[in-house]
């Protein structure tokens, strides 16, 4: 049976600044945020949400001439090309350790996210770009979330969210996200399929694709091979695809997971719905991290993130590449709701 829900998609309010969270202070987050600032003069206005001490240090390492300015509210921001506006979300008295898990860093990263969510919910910012966090550091600080997506969903009040991974050649939306493969098999039910298909459709439209072609990957090898390798395709995935088509979505499948991403890359599809984390992320990340971006769909505001982690192995060396963060910034600035989309699937 086709379930019916009310959906909404987020958009960037281009009259308002973006907020960039600093990420885990023990990783490369502050460094790539500093590099973004040094290379983004006269772009869309933005502020950093994070720890003033951490950001002052990151800027000083990147450029002795660069400076930051602590602000008490978004209204105080000047968006000066030569001074980085930092809205404090923590007040560390000493720099945390670099390149290793730290509860102090996990806590600071978490509160930067919460501060940004609060600003987005009140409409003070037009969207959030998040630098990488470390899940173990979060847990060591007592914040037991699998990642950004779950924090954002809980504190924004969004009932249905999904991850879209995108680069210049392919877009992927996940049915299940941060869980074991065993759990993913149970979570990829009819409701989860419908949520992912709908959000994939709306997410692609929000990126300017008027009539998205959505492809759904199968769960089993060869998409089940007619039931020889599993019945999830016939029992769960195909009925969800039929329901989505009845709602007017151009969706097809289930297609074998070993070929559908290649077909999407060649232009046959605009977005692929993948059944579990690695099925979707491996094809995207294999094409390189520099221009990959993670977009959270289903939130009441825009959120994007670079498609890489905290990179503890190179943290503090000044060699981290900010390209993916810059791409995430650009995606946040272009994400829009199509004018004719009311987001109502009831």
Alpha carbon gyration radius: 20 Å
Sheet-strand content, in percent, reads: 15-25%
Largest sheet report: 12 strands, mixed
Shape field: elongated
Distance between the termini: 14 Å
What is the average of the pLDDT values?
A: 89
Plain-language structure description:
With 346 residues, the protein is of the alpha/beta class. The chain is 36% helix and 16% strand. The protein is built from 11 helices and 12 strands. The protein has a 12-stranded mixed sheet. The chain starts with 17 loop residues before the first strand and ends in a 12-residue tail after the last helix. Residues 4-11 and 337-346 have low confidence and may be disordered.
Strand and helix layout:
Blueprint lengths: L17 E4 L7 H11 L6 E5 L1 H11 L4 E4 L12 E6 L14 H19 L5 E4 L4 H6 L7 H9 L5 E5 L4 E4 L6 H7 L2 H17 L7 E4 L14 H15 L4 E5 L4 H6 L5 E4 L2 H10 L6 E5 L5 E4 L16 H12 L12
Parallel strand pairs: 1-2, 1-5, 2-4, 3-4, 5-12, 7-10, 8-9, 8-10
Antiparallel strand pairs: 6-7, 6-11, 11-12
